[in-house]
Amino acid sequence: MALEYDVVILGGGTGGYVAAIRSAQLGLKTAMVEKGKLGGTCLHRGCIPSKALLRSAEVYRLAKDEADSFGVVTGEVSLAFDRVQQRKQSIVDGLHNGVRGLMKKGKIDVYEGIGRILGPSIFSPMPGTISVEYEDGRENDILIPQNVIVATGSRPRSLPGLQIDGKDVMTSDEALALEQLPASILIIGGGVIGIEWASMLNDFGVDVTVVEYADRILPTEDADISREMEKLLKKRGIRFETSAEVLPDSLNKQEGSVSIDAKIGEGTETFTAEKVLVSVGRQANTEGIGLENTDIELDRGFIKVKNTYQTKESHIYAIGDVIGGLQLAHVASHEGIAAVEHIARTDAHPVDPDMVPKCIYSSPEAASVGITEQQAKERGFSVKIGKFPFKAIGKALVHGESEGFVKIVADKETDDILGIHMIGPHVTDMISEAGLAKVLDATPWEVASLVHPHPSLSEVMGEAALAVDGKAIHM
């Protein structure tokens, strides 16, 4: 039976289900096709489970290594990793039920199958009819939408020639399901995901080595943040090798260990660990969804879209990781809303990458919004910098985490804030003030004029803003 809809969304991840909710709010008859579980990668294999594990790791480290400094005598502290995993799964399950409830509340039809875009057919002269296929052999459902939104997300990728077996050589997908912690791990890739896993596993007591192809970890972040992160993680015992080209053909698995070579400078070094975690980015899920039946174009494996999120087929939109750019859950959500609002002919607001807060949930945390100092100079800005350390903030000392700083990059000519970069305690929460400052096109003076409560970690924002013009009070 063929069913007609205003909007059909392929993919029930964060971008997809948020788009569905906004579509329903605007009075559009909406359906979603999801082959796995609602919530997608973020809820089941990414943001939420990894942050649950990070929190358990942090609590373990605090109890084991730092409680005494607060005058709290804990005695022997041990880790029950099975209970760590149970807590993680309980959080995921609760949020999954919440998403399912939102679909029911919005009267959104959810099809639990594989959605494929069909070419022109008896149902429609244009490509875009959706066939929903079921693994249990049920007859396909046919959905006839006026508009389609592709939100099929992404998956971890590997290096060419480096095979992921899910046991000895893993991606973050398999690592999240570990039943036991390894004694040691080699992490290939020092980007955001690699650094979060390095921090987490180090807190759990795992011996961690990170190898990164670029000349510094977190290569997309401000260079000062990268240096500070490496310095602080090295103090905790994590080993880093940068400018290291991993040689996949050298992979050697033996009972209880894995080794692989990396070219560093003129030489080659062998790295050996119990497990290898490959964290070298993500690739779009574009296979098997019927793109070949359309005129939709790909660019380096990602779907090409206009700033309205329309593909070359104007009635087919694409959002989230599948279009590349900033592969972040909150970006996918806002792209989904913008796409639906364009469909509904309301005021749509495309996502501006320079306005998107980015967060790293390691210990210490890092966060940023806007452009880096180097990017600002490359774009022709004459910059001025304000930097203020957490060690001069009373609440940071009270909290027991005083490493790190906030750095503000501003335009000398206009005084506009170009970028704000943070590393230190709870900066993933504080970055929202910086994001609002960017959205409102604030100047450092305007940020400094806000009365920040004392004592609070947020005081560092006001001081960094004052520091841009050399007027910081407590330095």
Verbal overview:
There is one protein chain. With 475 residues, this protein is α/β, with parallel strands linked by helices. The chain is built from 13 helices and 24 strands. Strands 1, 2, 3, 4, 5, 6 and 19 form a 7-stranded mixed beta sheet that branches. Helix 3 (47-66) packs antiparallel against helix 4. The protein is globular. The termini are far apart. The mean pLDDT is 96.
Concise structural overview:
The chain is an alpha/beta fold.
List the topology elements.
Elements: E1 2-10, H1 14-25, E2 30-33, H2 40-45, H3 47-66, H4 81-105, E3 109-111, E4 114-117, E5 130-133, E6 141-150, E7 154-156, E8 169-170, H5 172-175, E9 184-188, H6 192-203, E10 207-211, H7 223-235, E11 239-241, E12 244-254, E13 257-264, E14 267-273, E15 275-278, E16 282-284, E17 298-299, E18 302-303, E19 316-318, H8 329-343, E20 358-360, E21 365-370, H9 373-378, E22 383-389, H10 394-399, E23 405-411, E24 417-424, H11 427-439, H12 444-449, H13 459-467
Parallel strand pairs: 1-2, 1-6, 2-3, 6-19, 8-15, 9-10, 9-15, 10-11
Antiparallel strand pairs: 4-5, 5-6, 7-16, 12-13, 13-14, 17-18, 20-21, 21-24, 22-23, 23-24
Helix pairs in contact: 1-8, 3-4, 3-6
